[in-house]
Amino acid sequence: MNRKNALRTLAGGFAALLLAASAAHAQPKPAGDGGTVRIMINPAGTMGIAPAVIKKYGLDRKHGFTLETVPYADQKSATAAIQSGAAEMVVFDWLAAARLRASGTPIVGIAPFLTYVNSVVVPKDSPLKTLADLKGKRVGVQSKTGFDWIIMQAAAKQLYNMDIGKDAEVREGAVPLLRGLIEKGDLDATQMWNSLAPEMLASGRYRTLVTIRELAQQMGLPTVPFLFFSMREDYAKAHPGNARAFAAAYRDAVDILMNQDDVWQEHGERLKLSPESLVFFKQQVRRDLLKQFTPDMTRGLEATLTAVNGVAADVVALPALPPGLLSLAYQ
């Protein structure tokens, strides 16, 4: 090799080193500190989807932490785990999270998940068209203290000047039981979870009377996160990088869920959904997914709390939204 070629080779190698160094420097450093974040979830429900995607695609490691999912059977056990420090995060609805924060267990929302996803279903050939038509009808509700029923009462009062709790024959029970009752013809309408409604709709024997999200919209209430990822506030303050890392991993998971169809198959199998019902489920979840908090969501929750307190203040048991429930600091 002559002197000119040698210099040219040396210069090329030096340029490659500079390019590699520049690329490495441009690569953002993961926000997390490498620690483990334990999240309480109900594996049989929709809330397990985002954590499963984060783990499947290594989005936690990409952002510098390790996500560990811890199953829970009910809200009491999840609350106990948060209070004892046995877990760092939990997925709760906004009313449960607000009650917990107001009662002295400081949890803070660091990322949204879904807006209102549940619905009221009726037989396909039912003449019922709105909540007003439920007067005198047999209506199944999962819980008379649950948010879905409270917002149904608020909507009936505001939209139709109707006391649905008195004007309808209300039957309370577990959602699988309610499904069995309507299939036997013992209910005219029933609340239904978003993980069970798709199978009913896909059968062709049922239709949606109204979704909880539609009721909130008809009342003029803004879109808010019904379910969101809450973290112990002491942990978030001690490990802000991990809080930001989870929020970033969640946003990546939303992109995957919105744009890749194959990722839904395993979730359908976990929820025991038929291929036909999985189509309904995927469409619904994609419609209701929220990617990140916005500044107006706290005001939206305050407006919603005012609306539900107007019909069930004793059940809601939360006169005002505790400050700091949702945080944009980790977005």
Automatic annotation (TrEMBL):
Residues 1-26 form the signal peptide. Coiled coil: none annotated. The keyword Iron-sulfur does not apply. Keywords: Signal. It comes from the Bacteria. Gene3D superfamilies: Periplasmic binding protein-like II (3.40.190.10). Pfam families: NMT1. Residues 61-260 form the SsuA/THI5-like domain. PANTHER family: ABC TRANSPORTER SUBSTRATE-BINDING PROTEIN (PTHR30024:SF48), ALIPHATIC SULFONATES-BINDING PROTEIN-RELATED (PTHR30024). This is SsuA/THI5-like domain-containing protein. It comes from Pseudacidovorax intermedius.
